[in-house]
Design goal:
The complex is a heterodimer of chains A (about 150) and B (about 800).
Chain A: H1 2-41, E1 47-52, E2 58-63, E3 67-71, E4 78-79, E5 90-95, E6 98-103, E7 110-112, E8 115-116, E9 121-123, E10 128-131, E11 134-140, H2 144-147
Parallel strand pairs in A: 3-4
Antiparallel strand pairs in A: 1-2, 1-11, 3-5, 5-6, 6-9, 7-8, 7-10, 10-11
Chain B: H1 2-32, H2 43-64, H3 72-90, H4 92-112, H5 119-123, H6 125-142, E1 155-157, E2 160-162, H7 165-183, H8 190-211, H9 214-232, H10 235-255, H11 257-267, H12 278-290, H13 313-345, H14 350-374, H15 392-409, H16 423-449, H17 451-455, H18 462-469, E3 475-476, E4 482-487, E5 494-497, H19 503-506, E6 509-510, E7 514-515, H20 517-521, H21 523-526, H22 534-544, E8 553-555, H23 559-569, E9 574-580, E10 586-592, H24 600-609, H25 618-621, E11 624-625, H26 631-636, H27 645-651, E12 677-678, H28 680-691, E13 695-696, E14 702-707, E15 711-714, E16 722-723, H29 727-736, E17 745-753, E18 756-764, E19 774-780, H30 785-800
Parallel strand pairs in B: 3-8
Antiparallel strand pairs in B: 1-2, 3-4, 4-5, 6-7, 8-14, 9-10, 9-19, 11-12, 13-16, 14-15, 17-18, 18-19
Helix pairs in contact in B: 1-2, 1-3, 2-3, 2-4, 3-4, 3-13, 3-15, 4-15, 6-7, 7-9, 7-14, 7-15, 8-9, 9-10, 9-14, 10-11, 12-13, 12-16, 13-14, 13-15, 13-16, 14-15, 14-16, 23-30
The chains are: A alpha+beta (about 150), B alpha+beta (about 800).
Chain lengths: ~150, ~800
């Protein structure tokens, strides 16, 4: 009789041990799921880039991706035909809830106003920067919605 | 949310430990199979201490460090509770001491939550390391060992002992983290690593040479390697450390005895199972005994493993909780490691990142080293299993290290420091988790694959413990009179030998001298492993971790005739075999001198070296030269003494060992031995052919087993009858050797070899006898034909007229 009672208790003991582990796993899994849903529910960042070429011609592009490369190479997200622009000149990318501009080691450099971009800098709406002889202006949607999450 | 998770996990841990305490309390009742026992209430003290301090620490962590990782503390609390209950179950005195240490350690953790930051550790890195080194240095001079002998690794004052190498592991991690965090941002050059390396080498050499502690030396080396690799990301470090570690190992192997012994015990454990490898073999046997489900807390015999409370606690847990339990234990340790690494990666600065990773590595390395040692994956070293093993210094250090981890994990609001190379962290994490996985697989190997095989080893003392709890079957004579029985109450069952003179034949079962004779050969029936339904055996193993009640075995021995033979053989050296010449049932088997198995404990050692060899069953193992006793057999085959005797031997089965549930003498392998030797049993079977119309019967001694379902079930003979000579030749020979009163045939022969003389008597019933034919053989290790004739006559007359 005692042995059967103890056997039941022994099974309960194993169940308690694995409940501990199972519960930990389920919470961790839920965290992963939540993280995924959080990222999925975030509004896609959208950026508009307006390029004013030396010739006075204006080209505007709208991107819903988190990385935009600028350069003479046709494979760039924003290819520009400008002799003074390097093949892969600069990158505009979205992370840490902000848009960043970074120079990709270009020959002639990237400038905001008069200052040369040497480390990634944050871009805000209607900021202007210059690559070669082309002047770029960025404009982005407000991202306030996702900050509530 | 974090706080709710932590409290809930602690609640589940509490339920787990509560159930374990209840089972421990009830376990004496399971052993005794009765409610009227002394229940084991003392583990409730440990449970109470655990609940009290853990609840307090939970409250303090929730208030002071609300963002801390919610898994670290519950995981550590669960396994430390598991540890203390296991220690208590093994030894309540050590359990009580560990309860005090648990109170102090968790209490300190609760107090430590009040600290605002850990910067003081960084600021005083040199002083702290120096203190640790100083303590170690003092130990080298004034060190003691609480048990009185063995390596002197402790600093003792009164009843309080401290092992300085334990806190030194944490202090080394703190120092390295602080030092490297200071040096790294300004480009680190190899020269910077020189100085901590010298310190480390010093520690390692001191530990190894003076304290002879390979395990701790290995941990320091591995810890140093991990931390420098994580901080610098240079693979070179690993290579150098590997060389260093093998150098340490090789040096230890050649210069330090205990290391040498442990290495040998690891590499060749089966060579010396009762000496140097005793501990590891007992450990794997305990794991094997646990199997998948374990015997249940309080129901196994982990106390058989030496140092079960500290070094071998993993094996002790494996025995009582089974593979299921150890996999859970390893999973919880993996949880601590992965959360520790996560805290490291999320740490707000380099110092805290390296420190958290270092502490995680310390937990991981030490766990793998000792668990691996318990399951023969690595050489056995005397380090503790963090949070689980007995040892105040170890428990205290583990909980302080955990406190540091919890502090570091409490920074969700600050962004993690940038990480240049994630590779070292991922590689280290994978390494530690793979190590634990290897431990899990090896545990499975011992408990499932090798388990059944290991448990049958004669040095598995669990079998003998079982025998005091489970009654062993009796050996009965042909009319069911008891020969060997088990008497006493549950827990104190012991074997009683009612008919002492049969001892060389029926043997004994003893905790020191093992088993012999029929007790050994019929062991599976007597222990209930054969003859009982498989489901019943499984159920008994599951419920009690023991074999079912043993089954009685009836022998063919006739105690009346046996006692007649023994009376006449008193103070002689020799053997008697009387058997039914047709069925082969052995009615009498005597071997003299004999011994008293009831007094084996006192006389066993003397018996083993007695020149008269009373432990040997002369009837089956004795080999005597034949000499003139062969005459009737030569007559039966119509050859004379100059003929090729080997053919005669072949005909009468002397060249094949008889098949019987007793150890028999092997047949000499020489091609043409000048002096043929036979055992009395072989001679008796040959004599039976003369009384049984030339048929050689198969010998039988175990006749039937009493099963619970079908009652007495006969056991068939192991061999089969064989026609040795023609029936007419056999009958004629028997008639030719009839005695004057024509009641039986007999022949007395003598043989000599070197100095020893042997007198043989063979005889049997005449071929025309209506009742069962009988055959008798007497061997006397002396020249005494008159005595042999008298014994033969009286025994045969008695046997023929029941």
């Amino acid at each position: 009789m005692t042995a059967i009672l103890v056997l039941i208790l022994r099974f309960a003991l194993a169940i308690a041990l694995y409940t501990f582990l199972g519960w930990v796993l389920s919470i961790l899994w839920q965290e992963v799921k939540q993280q995924g849903e959080l990222l999925a529910s975030q509004k896609k960042p959208v950026i508009k880039v307006l390029a004013k070429l030396e010739s006075g011609k204006e080209v505007q592009q709208r991107y819903s991706q988190t990385e935009v490369t600028i350069g003479r190479d046709p494979n760039c997200d924003f290819p520009i035909l400008d002799e003074a622009i390097s093949a892969h000149h600069a990158r505009v990318s979205f992370h840490h809830s902000q848009w960043w501009l970074e120079d990709l080691n270009s020959t002639n450099g990237t400038f905001i106003g008069k200052s040369k971009v040497s480390v990634p800098v944050v871009l805000i709406a209607s900021d202007e920067f210059k690559c070669g002889n082309t002047l770029f202006t960025v404009d982005m949607d407000a991202l306030s919605e996702k900050l509530d999450l | 949310m974090n706080r709710i998770i932590q409290s809930r996990l602690l609640l589940i841990s509490g339920v787990f430990l509560l159930l374990q305490t209840i089972i421990l309390t009830l376990s004496p009742a399971v052993h005794a199979r009765s409610w009227v026992v002394d229940f084991r209430f003392s583990p409730w003290i440990a449970m109470g201490v655990w609940a009290l301090v853990v609840a307090r620490a939970d409250y303090d962590i929730s208030r002071k460090l609300p963002d801390a990782d919610p898994y670290l503390f519950p995981a550590a609390a669960l396994i430390s509770g598991w540890g203390i209950l296991t220690i208590w179950r093994l030894d309540p005195i050590f359990g009580a001491r560990q309860a005090v240490w648990l109170g102090v350690s968790v209490g300190l953790l609760a107090l430590g939550t009040r600290l605002r930051s850990l910067d003081f550790l960084r600021r005083y890195k040199y002083s702290l390391l120096l203190c640790g080194l100083l303590l170690l240095a003092i130990t080298l001079v004034f060190g003691t060992n609480p048990s009185g002998s063995g390596p002197r690794l402790w600093l003792g004052y009164d009843e309080l002992y401290l092992q300085p190498s334990e806190p030194l592991k944490l202090l080394l991690a703190v120092f390295l983290a602080a030092y490297l965090a200071d040096k790294l941002p300004a480009r680190l050059r190899t020269i910077h690593l020189l100085y901590p390396t010298i310190i480390l080498s010093g520690i390692v050499i001191l530990l190894l040479v003076v304290q002879r502690d390979l395990g701790t030396a290995a941990i320091f080396t591995a810890l140093f390697t991990f931390i420098t690799y994580l901080a610098t990301g240079r693979k070179r470090v690993l290579l150098i450390a590997l060389i260093l570690l093998s150098l340490v190992g090789v040096a230890g192997y050649y210069f330090v005895d205990i290391v040498h012994a442990r290495m040998n015990a690891w590499l060749n454990p089966w060579d010396d199972p009762s000496g140097r490898s005793y501990q590891i073999i007992q450990a794997v046997m305990a794991i094997a005994n646990g199997g998948i489900l374990g015997t249940g807390p309080g129901l196994g015999s982990p106390g058989l493993i030496p140092v079960a409370i500290s070094d071998m606690i993993y094996a002790a847990i494996a025995e009582e909780s089974g593979l299921l339990g150890t996999l859970g234990l390893l999973a919880i340790i993996s949880l601590i490691l992965s959360r520790g690494l996560r805290a490291a990666l999320r740490a707000p600065d380099l110092y805290r990142r390296i420190l958290a990773a270092g502490i995680t590595a310390y937990f991981g390395i030490q766990t793998i080293l000792i668990v691996g040692g318990n399951i023969r994956l690595l050489p056995l070293t005397g380090v503790t299993l963090p949070f689980v093993s007995y040892g105040g210094s170890s428990l205290l250090t583990s909980f302080i290290a955990l406190l540091v981890l919890i502090h570091i994990s409490n920074h969700l609001d600050i962004d993690p420091a940038p990480l240049l190379k994630p590779q070292p962290y991922l590689a280290s994490g994978s390494f530690l988790l793979l190590g634990l996985l290897a431990c899990a697989l090896a545990t499975g190997w011992w408990s499932v694959v090798r388990g059944p095989d290991l448990l049958t080893r004669p040095d598995n003392r669990r079998r003998l413990i079982e025998e005091s709890y489970v009654p062993r079957g009796s050996l009965l004579d042909t009319s069911s009179t008891a020969i060997n029985v088990t008497s006493g109450a549950i827990g104190t069952y012991s074997r009683e030998y009612k008919y002492v003179d049969l001892a060389p034949i029926t043997g004994y079962t003893d905790s020191t001298y093992g088993q012999a004779g029929l007790e050994a050969s019929l062991d599976e029936y007597l222990r209930g492993l054969k003859g009982n339904p498989t489901s019943m055996i499984f159920w008994h193993h599951l419920l009690y971790g023991m074999d079912p009640t043993g089954l009685d075995v009836r022998l063919s021995i006739d105690l009346y005739l046996q006692s007649r033979a023994d009376e006449m053989m008193i103070s002689q050296r020799g053997a008697v075999v009387l058997l039914n010449a047709r069925s082969g049932e052995i009615l009498v088997m005597a071997s003299h001198p004999t011994f008293n198995p009831n007094h084996l404990t006192e006389s066993g050692a003397r018996l083993l070296t007695d020149p008269d060899k009373p432990l040997i069953n002369r009837a089956t193992l004795g080999q005597y030269p034949t000499g003139t006793v062969m005459e009737p057999f030569l007559d039966a085959l119509a050859v004379d003494a100059s003929a090729n005797l080997n053919e005669v031997y072949e005909s009468f089965g002397f060249n094949t060992p008889p098949q019987i549930q007793l150890p028999v003498a092997p047949i000499p392998t020489e091609a043409n031995p000048t002096i043929q030797r036979v055992s009395p049993l072989q001679m008796a079977l040959a004599a039976a052919t003369l009384s049984n119309h030339g048929i050689l019967p198969p010998p039988r001694i175990a006749m039937a087993v009493r099963t619970p379902v079908e009652g007495w079930v006969p056991l068939s003979a192991l061999g089969s009858p064989m026609e040795a000579i023609q029936a007419t030749a056999a009958d004629e020979t028997a008639l030719a050797y009839l005695t004057n009163d024509q009641s039986y045939w007999k022949h007395i022969g003598q043989a000599q070899e070197n100095e020893s003389l042997v007198t043989w008597f063979i005889g049997g019933t005449p071929p025309n006898r209506q009742a069962a034919p009988l055959a008798l053989v007497i061997v006397l290790e002396a020249t005494n034909p008159a005595l042999a004739d008298r014994i033969g006559r009286e025994l045969l007359i008695d046997a023929m007229n029941p």
